[in-house]
Amino acid sequence: MIPVVPVESCTHVLAEFDCLEPLLSALRLDSGRIKCTCLSVSRKWLALGTSAGGLHLIQRDGWKQKLILTHKEGSITQVSCCPHDEDFIAVATSQGLVVVWELHLERRGRPERASVSWEHRGVTVTSLCWDTVALRVFAGDVGGKVSCVRAGSSKLGKGSAFVIFPVQTITTVDSRVVQLGYTDGHLVISSLSRCYLCDTEREKFWRVGNKERDGEFGACFLTQGLAGQRGQLVGCPAPLLFCARPGSRIWEASFSGEVLSTHQFKQLLAVPPLPLVSCKNEPHFNPTQTNPQSLAFPRLLQFGDQNLLTWTDSAIYIFTPHSGQVLLWTEVKDVLEISVFRNDLFCLHGDGRLSHMSLVSPDRCVERLMKRENWTIAATVCCMFQHAITTSKARKSLSIDRLEHLKAQLNSTSHQQLIGQLEEVISKLEPLDSACSSRRSSISSHESFNVLDCGIYRVISRRGSQSDDDASSLANQSMFEEERLKEFSFTEEEQVDNDSASVRGEGDRSDLGLQFLPLPFRSKPPRVALQAVRDRYTHIHANTQRERETYS
């Protein structure tokens, strides 16, 4: 009998749909001699640094190797793709060299070193961070020094490619730099003892909070939509700063360094971990309650629009700070480094392995497993996350017919118990329009409608009715959602199947507030409608001829 995940933990799941072992084998990074040491991901690229000083640029569309950039200055310790211009990528080597590469892929030219910095010569660079608007990179090292490297490029204007920009030392903090983050003119520096906030335009510094800590603790900004990438969006909340603290705590701070609140996750983590859904093995869920976890979060990353991602060497954690909740945590072995883009995360393991995971809803997970014909795993996820599968919202991706088809693919002999449990899930399915029935009844009590010839229902609203207020508030809510661009609850559906381009169907937009009535009508077939147009035209033409004959 497959245990059922509690309803409060059913919203999302981490799933590994792709196996990257063939990719590492093709790059010869699966041997003991050369290993992958760091990674960075963007919309277009997966960048892998190696112990031999090579930088492999993999095109995510089709997993094709595009370039190999070599460095004689040691192994690659850090790599970072430019978030606003994918023609630039920054790397740091074990000898302390920081290089900004311009790829020239649009012009089909040869990649060149746009900027080189020896500011950290002889020491290890521990963090790289791009400016979210300008072509400059911030670098921090084990000695606490933070520098800024500006890239010279012809994109900056005529003759800019021939200008050598000086390397600027921003500051030197008290201990090793653990993590750097940047947004909207502000740089956060997390060291072993505390966090510092720097206004790079006014050259001012603040300490975040008053209490120190001892160890590796990350910090990052949490922005909404595209805020912090191409300027602050109108109507978007201001970015907030989050700093990890001992005991599974995270500070939430303002741009002035003032601590606004402390998020306590120790007790919230006393829940069983969700399984990692993989195409290799069937997921297993142990519903036994666990003890509270007192952890140190070595890095913090923004994941989507509303979530923070962090990890230890044995698990991945995703938090939602605005609600103060744990979205999920999943046991993953030997985690060394993680890079994220939207709802995708790429994990580098201590033995050099690489894994690609996606944060998806359970119904989307089952849908993608069925497309890959992983019938047993898809049925297992259905039974395990049945609280999410049976909701009316899931009918958009998992209709009753599709689940019946899934059941038919299972072996009646070896999967008899699984088939029986899946039949119970199918019997509990809510119809697609059940979530709309209450709103539809409230609308009908305040409004009337008539049916047009084409089959469209025209709703006639009564003035002063409650439904007018509901409609206006609904429209305002929809406009606010559009200003925020991508609510994380549906950014998970932007990656369709095998990491293809981001596409979103019109059917998925109905989640934003039921902007139409899904009333059960059927429009006329195209041929019938065309015949009606012809008959109408013939009637008008005959009347016109009669009028002409009368006046003549």
Keywords, please?
552 residues, alpha+beta, five-stranded mixed β-sheet, four-stranded antiparallel β-sheet
Q: What can be said about this structure in brief?
A:
With 552 residues, this protein is α+β, with helices and mostly antiparallel strands.
Report what the structure shows:
- With 552 residues, the protein is α+β, with helices and mostly antiparallel strands.
- Among the domains are: 363-427, no CATH class; 451-465 and 520-546.
- It is 20% helix and 32% strand.
- The strands form eight sheets. The protein has a five-stranded mixed β-sheet.
- Strand 7 and strand 8 form a beta hairpin.
- Helix 2 (362-371) runs antiparallel to helix 3 (375-384) and helix 3 (375-384) packs across helix 6.
- The longest helix has 26 residues, at 526-551.
- It is globular, with a radius of gyration of 28 Å.
Write the layout of secondary structure elements.
Blueprint: E1 13-18, H1 21-26, E2 36-41, E3 45-50, E4 54-59, E5 64-70, E6 76-81, E7 88-93, E8 98-102, E9 112-117, E10 125-130, E11 136-141, E12 145-150, E13 168-172, E14 177-183, E15 186-191, E16 195-199, E17 204-208, E18 219-222, E19 240-245, E20 249-253, E21 259-264, E22 277-278, E23 301-303, E24 307-311, E25 315-320, E26 325-331, E27 335-341, E28 344-349, E29 354-360, H2 362-371, H3 375-384, H4 386-389, H5 400-408, H6 416-427, H7 434-446, E30 447-451, E31 457-461, H8 466-483, H9 488-491, H10 526-551
Parallel strand pairs: 1-22
Antiparallel strand pairs: 1-29, 2-3, 3-4, 4-5, 6-7, 7-8, 8-9, 10-11, 11-12, 12-13, 14-15, 15-16, 16-17, 18-19, 19-20, 20-21, 23-24, 24-25, 25-26, 27-28, 28-29, 30-31
Helix pairs in contact: 2-3, 3-6, 5-6
